[in-house]
Protein backbone atom coordinates (compact mmCIF):
# COMPACT_ATOMS: atom_id res chain seq x y z
CA UNK A 1 0.00 0.00 0.00
CA UNK A 2 1.25 3.47 -0.84
CA UNK A 3 2.64 5.48 2.06
CA UNK A 4 0.81 8.44 0.56
CA UNK A 5 -2.36 7.43 2.39
CA UNK A 6 -2.32 7.05 6.17
CA UNK A 7 -5.32 4.97 7.16
CA UNK A 8 -3.75 4.31 10.57
CA UNK A 9 -4.21 7.95 11.60
CA UNK A 10 -6.42 8.36 14.65
CA UNK A 11 -8.77 11.30 14.08
CA UNK A 12 -10.68 12.76 17.00
CA UNK A 13 -14.30 12.85 15.86
CA UNK A 14 -15.98 13.38 19.23
CA UNK A 15 -17.86 16.64 19.74
CA UNK A 16 -17.79 17.37 16.01
CA UNK A 17 -21.54 16.93 15.39
CA UNK A 18 -20.76 13.36 14.36
CA UNK A 19 -23.57 10.83 14.69
CA UNK A 20 -21.20 7.87 14.80
CA UNK A 21 -19.10 9.16 17.70
CA UNK A 22 -21.41 11.56 19.54
CA UNK A 23 -24.52 9.39 19.91
CA UNK A 24 -22.83 6.57 21.92
CA UNK A 25 -21.72 7.31 25.46
CA UNK A 26 -18.20 8.78 25.69
CA UNK A 27 -16.54 5.58 26.90
CA UNK A 28 -18.04 3.45 24.12
CA UNK A 29 -16.22 2.61 20.91
CA UNK A 30 -18.56 3.27 17.95
CA UNK A 31 -18.44 0.42 15.44
CA UNK A 32 -21.98 0.77 14.16
CA UNK A 33 -23.21 3.18 11.45
CA UNK A 34 -21.64 2.79 7.97
CA UNK A 35 -19.30 5.76 8.26
CA UNK A 36 -15.53 5.22 8.04
CA UNK A 37 -13.00 6.90 10.32
CA UNK A 38 -10.70 8.00 7.48
CA UNK A 39 -10.14 11.40 5.94
CA UNK A 40 -11.57 11.75 2.45
CA UNK A 41 -9.12 12.02 -0.47
CA UNK A 42 -7.03 15.20 -0.51
CA UNK A 43 -8.51 16.12 -3.90
CA UNK A 44 -12.00 16.12 -2.39
CA UNK A 45 -10.86 18.31 0.49
CA UNK A 46 -9.16 20.74 -1.88
CA UNK A 47 -12.23 20.99 -4.14
CA UNK A 48 -14.35 21.88 -1.12
CA UNK A 49 -11.81 24.41 0.14
CA UNK A 50 -11.69 26.05 -3.28
CA UNK A 51 -15.48 26.34 -3.33
CA UNK A 52 -15.47 27.83 0.17
CA UNK A 53 -12.73 30.32 -0.74
CA UNK A 54 -14.94 31.57 -3.55
CA UNK A 55 -17.35 32.56 -0.80
CA UNK A 56 -20.65 32.67 -2.72
CA UNK A 57 -23.15 29.87 -2.18
CA UNK A 58 -26.08 30.64 -4.45
CA UNK A 59 -28.29 28.24 -6.37
CA UNK A 60 -26.05 25.80 -8.26
CA UNK A 61 -26.13 24.90 -11.94
CA UNK A 62 -23.85 21.99 -12.68
CA UNK A 63 -24.31 21.67 -16.43
CA UNK A 64 -23.30 18.14 -17.37
CA UNK A 65 -20.01 18.01 -15.46
CA UNK A 66 -21.20 15.98 -12.46
CA UNK A 67 -23.23 13.56 -14.58
CA UNK A 68 -20.22 13.10 -16.85
CA UNK A 69 -18.04 12.32 -13.83
CA UNK A 70 -20.53 9.65 -12.71
CA UNK A 71 -20.66 8.15 -16.22
CA UNK A 72 -16.86 8.11 -16.52
CA UNK A 73 -16.54 6.47 -13.08
CA UNK A 74 -18.94 3.58 -13.69
CA UNK A 75 -17.30 2.91 -17.06
CA UNK A 76 -13.77 2.89 -15.64
CA UNK A 77 -14.64 1.01 -12.45
CA UNK A 78 -17.37 -1.38 -13.57
CA UNK A 79 -17.28 -1.44 -17.37
CA UNK A 80 -20.75 0.06 -17.57
CA UNK A 81 -21.17 2.47 -20.48
CA UNK A 82 -23.98 4.95 -19.88
CA UNK A 83 -24.84 8.38 -21.20
CA UNK A 84 -24.56 11.33 -18.80
CA UNK A 85 -28.19 12.21 -19.47
CA UNK A 86 -29.25 8.96 -17.77
CA UNK A 87 -27.84 10.26 -14.46
CA UNK A 88 -30.29 11.94 -12.08
CA UNK A 89 -28.65 13.72 -9.13
CA UNK A 90 -30.22 13.15 -5.72
CA UNK A 91 -29.59 14.19 -2.10
CA UNK A 92 -29.26 10.61 -0.88
CA UNK A 93 -29.77 6.96 -1.81
CA UNK A 94 -32.50 6.53 0.84
CA UNK A 95 -34.23 9.47 -0.80
CA UNK A 96 -33.78 7.67 -4.12
CA UNK A 97 -35.45 4.41 -3.21
CA UNK A 98 -38.32 6.18 -1.48
CA UNK A 99 -38.71 8.35 -4.58
CA UNK A 100 -38.79 5.20 -6.74
CA UNK A 101 -41.62 3.78 -4.61
CA UNK A 102 -43.51 7.06 -4.91
CA UNK A 103 -42.97 7.12 -8.68
CA UNK A 104 -43.78 3.55 -9.63
CA UNK A 105 -46.12 2.10 -6.99
CA UNK A 106 -49.56 3.01 -5.73
CA UNK A 107 -51.26 2.28 -2.38
CA UNK A 108 -52.04 -1.41 -2.17
CA UNK A 109 -49.23 -2.46 -4.50
CA UNK A 110 -46.60 -4.90 -3.28
CA UNK A 111 -42.96 -4.05 -2.57
CA UNK A 112 -40.52 -6.94 -2.35
CA UNK A 113 -37.48 -6.81 -0.05
CA UNK A 114 -34.89 -9.42 0.99
CA UNK A 115 -34.20 -9.33 4.74
CA UNK A 116 -31.99 -9.18 6.59
CA UNK A 117 -31.45 -5.90 4.80
CA UNK A 118 -30.67 -2.24 5.33
CA UNK A 119 -33.22 -0.90 7.82
CA UNK A 120 -34.65 1.99 5.74
CA UNK A 121 -35.76 -0.51 3.07
CA UNK A 122 -38.15 -1.89 5.68
CA UNK A 123 -39.90 1.46 6.10
CA UNK A 124 -40.64 2.20 2.44
CA UNK A 125 -43.85 0.16 2.24
CA UNK A 126 -45.30 1.92 5.28
CA UNK A 127 -44.26 5.31 3.90
CA UNK A 128 -46.41 4.82 0.78
CA UNK A 129 -49.16 2.47 1.99
CA UNK A 130 -47.74 -0.49 0.12
CA UNK A 131 -47.77 -4.18 1.03
CA UNK A 132 -44.35 -5.34 2.19
CA UNK A 133 -43.46 -8.70 0.71
CA UNK A 134 -40.35 -10.57 1.81
CA UNK A 135 -37.99 -13.19 0.47
CA UNK A 136 -35.70 -13.94 3.39
CA UNK A 137 -32.09 -14.60 2.39
CA UNK A 138 -30.77 -17.93 3.65
CA UNK A 139 -27.26 -18.93 4.69
CA UNK A 140 -25.45 -21.68 2.84
CA UNK A 141 -23.16 -24.20 4.48
CA UNK A 142 -20.26 -21.75 4.16
CA UNK A 143 -22.21 -19.08 6.05
CA UNK A 144 -22.62 -16.88 2.99
CA UNK A 145 -26.13 -15.69 2.18
CA UNK A 146 -27.77 -16.90 -1.01
CA UNK A 147 -30.81 -16.17 -3.14
CA UNK A 148 -33.19 -19.10 -3.50
CA UNK A 149 -34.73 -18.24 -6.87
CA UNK A 150 -37.74 -20.54 -6.34
CA UNK A 151 -38.52 -18.81 -3.03
CA UNK A 152 -37.88 -15.44 -4.67
CA UNK A 153 -40.47 -16.11 -7.36
CA UNK A 154 -42.92 -17.56 -4.85
CA UNK A 155 -42.78 -14.29 -2.89
CA UNK A 156 -44.08 -12.36 -5.91
CA UNK A 157 -47.83 -11.90 -6.28
CA UNK A 158 -49.98 -10.12 -8.87
CA UNK A 159 -49.79 -7.06 -6.56
CA UNK A 160 -45.96 -6.89 -6.63
CA UNK A 161 -44.90 -3.73 -8.40
CA UNK A 162 -41.30 -3.07 -7.31
CA UNK A 163 -38.35 -5.08 -6.01
CA UNK A 164 -35.73 -3.42 -3.79
CA UNK A 165 -32.34 -5.05 -4.37
CA UNK A 166 -29.28 -4.32 -2.26
CA UNK A 167 -25.99 -5.29 -3.95
CA UNK A 168 -23.40 -5.52 -2.50
CA UNK A 169 -25.73 -6.63 0.24
CA UNK A 170 -25.98 -4.77 3.53
CA UNK A 171 -25.60 -6.16 6.21
CA UNK A 172 -24.34 -9.56 5.00
CA UNK A 173 -21.55 -8.35 2.70
CA UNK A 174 -22.58 -10.64 -0.17
CA UNK A 175 -21.66 -9.61 -3.72
CA UNK A 176 -24.22 -11.36 -5.89
CA UNK A 177 -23.02 -13.35 -8.88
CA UNK A 178 -24.06 -12.86 -12.49
CA UNK A 179 -26.20 -16.00 -12.25
CA UNK A 180 -28.04 -14.77 -9.16
CA UNK A 181 -28.60 -11.32 -10.62
CA UNK A 182 -29.78 -12.70 -13.96
CA UNK A 183 -32.14 -15.09 -12.20
CA UNK A 184 -33.75 -12.37 -10.10
CA UNK A 185 -33.98 -10.00 -13.07
CA UNK A 186 -35.55 -12.61 -15.36
CA UNK A 187 -38.21 -13.37 -12.76
CA UNK A 188 -38.95 -9.67 -12.30
CA UNK A 189 -39.27 -9.13 -16.04
CA UNK A 190 -41.60 -12.10 -16.39
CA UNK A 191 -43.86 -10.71 -13.65
CA UNK A 192 -43.60 -7.07 -14.80
CA UNK A 193 -41.86 -6.00 -11.58
CA UNK A 194 -39.66 -2.92 -11.66
CA UNK A 195 -36.24 -3.19 -9.98
CA UNK A 196 -34.70 -0.54 -7.75
CA UNK A 197 -31.07 -1.58 -7.20
CA UNK A 198 -29.19 0.05 -4.32
CA UNK A 199 -25.53 -0.26 -5.33
CA UNK A 200 -24.07 2.28 -2.89
CA UNK A 201 -21.32 -0.17 -1.82
CA UNK A 202 -20.45 -1.17 -5.39
CA UNK A 203 -16.91 0.26 -5.25
CA UNK A 204 -16.05 -1.61 -2.05
CA UNK A 205 -15.52 -5.17 -3.26
CA UNK A 206 -12.61 -7.44 -2.35
CA UNK A 207 -10.31 -9.67 -4.36
CA UNK A 208 -11.98 -12.73 -5.85
CA UNK A 209 -15.27 -10.93 -6.34
CA UNK A 210 -16.59 -8.39 -8.82
CA UNK A 211 -19.52 -6.03 -8.68
CA UNK A 212 -21.82 -6.29 -11.69
CA UNK A 213 -24.37 -3.47 -12.08
CA UNK A 214 -27.70 -5.21 -12.59
CA UNK A 215 -28.70 -2.89 -15.42
CA UNK A 216 -25.62 -4.00 -17.38
CA UNK A 217 -27.03 -7.47 -17.94
CA UNK A 218 -29.03 -6.48 -21.02
CA UNK A 219 -31.17 -3.70 -22.48
CA UNK A 220 -34.47 -5.27 -21.45
CA UNK A 221 -33.39 -5.38 -17.80
CA UNK A 222 -31.98 -1.86 -17.97
CA UNK A 223 -35.34 -0.57 -19.21
CA UNK A 224 -36.94 -1.80 -15.97
CA UNK A 225 -34.19 -0.80 -13.52
CA UNK A 226 -33.39 2.23 -11.38
CA UNK A 227 -29.80 2.01 -10.12
CA UNK A 228 -28.81 4.05 -7.07
CA UNK A 229 -25.21 4.84 -6.18
CA UNK A 230 -23.13 7.47 -4.43
CA UNK A 231 -19.56 8.37 -3.50
CA UNK A 232 -20.64 8.59 0.14
CA UNK A 233 -19.52 5.14 1.35
CA UNK A 234 -16.63 4.87 -1.12
CA UNK A 235 -14.97 8.17 -0.18
CA UNK A 236 -16.48 8.77 3.27
CA UNK A 237 -18.54 11.84 2.36
CA UNK A 238 -22.00 10.70 3.49
CA UNK A 239 -22.67 13.99 5.27
CA UNK A 240 -22.49 15.89 1.98
CA UNK A 241 -25.65 14.17 0.67
CA UNK A 242 -24.62 13.67 -2.94
CA UNK A 243 -26.01 10.63 -4.78
CA UNK A 244 -27.29 9.60 -8.18
CA UNK A 245 -29.89 7.45 -9.88
CA UNK A 246 -28.94 5.92 -13.21
CA UNK A 247 -32.06 5.37 -15.33
CA UNK A 248 -31.31 4.57 -18.94
CA UNK A 249 -34.93 4.35 -20.11
CA UNK A 250 -36.15 7.87 -20.88
CA UNK A 251 -39.81 7.25 -20.00
CA UNK A 252 -38.83 5.67 -16.70
CA UNK A 253 -36.47 8.56 -15.97
CA UNK A 254 -39.13 11.18 -16.69
CA UNK A 255 -41.61 9.38 -14.44
CA UNK A 256 -39.00 9.21 -11.68
CA UNK A 257 -38.20 12.94 -12.02
CA UNK A 258 -41.91 13.85 -11.97
CA UNK A 259 -42.34 12.07 -8.63
CA UNK A 260 -40.13 14.64 -6.89
CA UNK A 261 -43.31 16.76 -6.56
CA UNK A 262 -41.46 19.61 -4.91
CA UNK A 263 -40.37 17.34 -2.04
CA UNK A 264 -36.98 16.18 -3.33
CA UNK A 265 -34.62 19.04 -4.10
CA UNK A 266 -31.26 19.32 -5.78
CA UNK A 267 -27.85 18.18 -4.55
CA UNK A 268 -26.21 21.05 -2.67
CA UNK A 269 -23.29 22.79 -4.33
CA UNK A 270 -20.61 21.45 -1.98
CA UNK A 271 -21.91 17.91 -2.25
CA UNK A 272 -21.77 18.07 -6.03
CA UNK A 273 -18.21 19.44 -5.92
CA UNK A 274 -17.17 16.59 -3.65
CA UNK A 275 -18.84 13.99 -5.88
CA UNK A 276 -17.14 15.32 -9.00
CA UNK A 277 -13.71 15.53 -7.38
CA UNK A 278 -14.01 12.06 -5.86
CA UNK A 279 -14.98 10.41 -9.13
CA UNK A 280 -12.40 12.31 -11.16
CA UNK A 281 -9.42 11.94 -8.83
CA UNK A 282 -10.20 9.42 -6.08
CA UNK A 283 -9.24 6.10 -7.71
CA UNK A 284 -5.68 5.86 -6.27
CA UNK A 285 -6.98 6.60 -2.76
CA UNK A 286 -9.70 3.96 -3.17
CA UNK A 287 -7.25 1.34 -4.43
CA UNK A 288 -5.14 1.87 -1.30
CA UNK A 289 -8.22 1.88 0.93
CA UNK A 290 -9.37 -1.50 -0.41
CA UNK A 291 -6.03 -3.06 0.50
CA UNK A 292 -6.33 -1.66 4.04
CA UNK A 293 -9.97 -2.70 4.47
CA UNK A 294 -9.30 -6.22 3.22
CA UNK A 295 -6.52 -6.59 5.78
CA UNK A 296 -8.89 -5.31 8.49
CA UNK A 297 -11.50 -7.82 7.34
CA UNK A 298 -9.03 -10.69 7.43
CA UNK A 299 -7.80 -9.70 10.91
CA UNK A 300 -11.41 -9.56 12.12
CA UNK A 301 -12.31 -12.96 10.67
CA UNK A 302 -9.26 -14.61 12.27
CA UNK A 303 -10.04 -12.96 15.62
CA UNK A 304 -13.64 -14.21 15.52
CA UNK A 305 -12.52 -17.77 14.71
CA UNK A 306 -9.81 -17.94 17.35
CA UNK A 307 -10.91 -15.66 20.17
CA UNK A 308 -14.69 -15.27 20.12
CA UNK A 309 -16.31 -18.55 21.21
CA UNK A 310 -19.99 -18.63 20.32
CA UNK A 311 -19.63 -16.11 17.49
CA UNK A 312 -19.47 -17.02 13.81
CA UNK A 313 -19.02 -14.94 10.67
CA UNK A 314 -18.50 -15.40 6.95
CA UNK A 315 -15.99 -13.03 5.41
CA UNK A 316 -17.82 -10.15 3.67
CA UNK A 317 -17.16 -10.10 -0.06
CA UNK A 318 -17.85 -6.38 -0.17
CA UNK A 319 -18.65 -3.39 2.09
CA UNK A 320 -16.74 -2.57 5.28
CA UNK A 321 -19.39 -4.23 7.43
CA UNK A 322 -19.23 -7.62 9.14
CA UNK A 323 -22.34 -9.62 10.04
CA UNK A 324 -21.62 -11.54 13.24
CA UNK A 325 -23.78 -14.52 14.19
CA UNK A 326 -24.19 -14.46 17.97
CA UNK A 327 -27.23 -16.73 18.20
CA UNK A 328 -25.34 -19.38 20.14
CA UNK A 329 -24.76 -16.84 22.92
CA UNK A 330 -28.54 -16.43 23.42
CA UNK A 331 -28.14 -12.77 24.28
CA UNK A 332 -31.15 -10.73 25.31
CA UNK A 333 -31.73 -7.44 23.54
CA UNK A 334 -33.48 -4.38 24.88
CA UNK A 335 -36.41 -3.70 22.55
CA UNK A 336 -35.90 -0.58 20.43
CA UNK A 337 -32.34 0.08 21.66
CA UNK A 338 -30.07 1.84 19.16
CA UNK A 339 -27.19 -0.57 19.89
CA UNK A 340 -27.04 -4.22 20.84
CA UNK A 341 -27.55 -4.17 24.60
CA UNK A 342 -25.02 -6.83 25.60
CA UNK A 343 -22.11 -5.38 23.64
CA UNK A 344 -22.98 -1.81 24.63
CA UNK A 345 -23.25 -2.60 28.34
CA UNK A 346 -20.64 -5.34 28.83
CA UNK A 347 -18.04 -4.52 26.17
CA UNK A 348 -18.70 -0.77 25.81
CA UNK A 349 -18.73 -1.22 22.03
CA UNK A 350 -21.59 0.18 19.94
CA UNK A 351 -22.77 -2.38 17.36
CA UNK A 352 -25.95 -2.38 15.30
CA UNK A 353 -28.38 -4.98 16.63
CA UNK A 354 -29.45 -7.45 13.96
CA UNK A 355 -33.14 -6.90 14.66
CA UNK A 356 -32.92 -3.52 12.90
CA UNK A 357 -32.34 -5.40 9.63
CA UNK A 358 -35.62 -7.30 9.74
CA UNK A 359 -36.43 -10.99 9.60
CA UNK A 360 -33.41 -13.21 9.94
CA UNK A 361 -31.50 -10.58 11.90
CA UNK A 362 -32.32 -11.59 15.47
CA UNK A 363 -29.23 -12.82 17.28
CA UNK A 364 -26.81 -11.07 14.90
CA UNK A 365 -24.87 -7.82 15.16
CA UNK A 366 -23.26 -5.66 12.47
CA UNK A 367 -19.72 -4.38 13.02
CA UNK A 368 -18.09 -1.58 10.99
CA UNK A 369 -14.39 -2.30 10.35
CA UNK A 370 -13.82 0.88 8.33
CA UNK A 371 -11.44 2.32 10.91
CA UNK A 372 -7.75 2.37 11.85
CA UNK A 373 -6.46 -1.07 12.77
CA UNK A 374 -5.73 0.01 16.34
CA UNK A 375 -9.39 0.98 16.83
CA UNK A 376 -10.55 -2.35 15.46
CA UNK A 377 -8.17 -4.25 17.73
CA UNK A 378 -9.32 -2.35 20.81
CA UNK A 379 -12.98 -3.04 19.99
CA UNK A 380 -12.38 -6.75 19.41
CA UNK A 381 -10.40 -7.13 22.61
CA UNK A 382 -13.17 -5.41 24.56
CA UNK A 383 -15.64 -7.88 23.07
CA UNK A 384 -13.33 -10.80 23.87
CA UNK A 385 -13.15 -9.76 27.54
CA UNK A 386 -16.93 -9.31 27.74
CA UNK A 387 -17.52 -12.79 26.29
CA UNK A 388 -15.05 -14.27 28.76
CA UNK A 389 -17.15 -12.84 31.42
Please provide a brief summary of the model.
With 389 residues, the protein is α/β, with parallel strands linked by helices.
Describe this structure in words.
By secondary structure, the chain is α/β, with parallel strands linked by helices. It folds into 2 domains: 19-41 and 283-388, Aspartate Aminotransferase, domain 1, CATH 3.90.1150; 46-281, Type I PLP-dependent aspartate aminotransferase-like (Major domain) (Aspartate Aminotransferase, domain 2). The chain has helices spanning 19-22, 42-54, 65-78, 93-104, 121-127, 149-154, 178-190, 219-222, 232-235, 250-258, 269-281, 283-307, 341-347, 373-388; strands spanning 29-30, 87-90, 110-113, 131-134, 138-139, 145-146, 160-166, 194-198, 225-229, 243-246, 321-325, 349-350, 352-353, 364-368. The strands form 4 sheets. Strands 2-10-9-8-7-3-4 form a 7-stranded mixed beta sheet, with helices on both faces. Strands 11-14-13 form a 3-stranded antiparallel beta sheet, with no helix packed on it. A two-stranded parallel sheet has the order 1-12. Helix 2 packs antiparallel against helix 11, helix 3 packs parallel to helix 11 (269-281) and helix 12 packs parallel to helix 14. The model has no long low-confidence stretch (mean pLDDT 97).
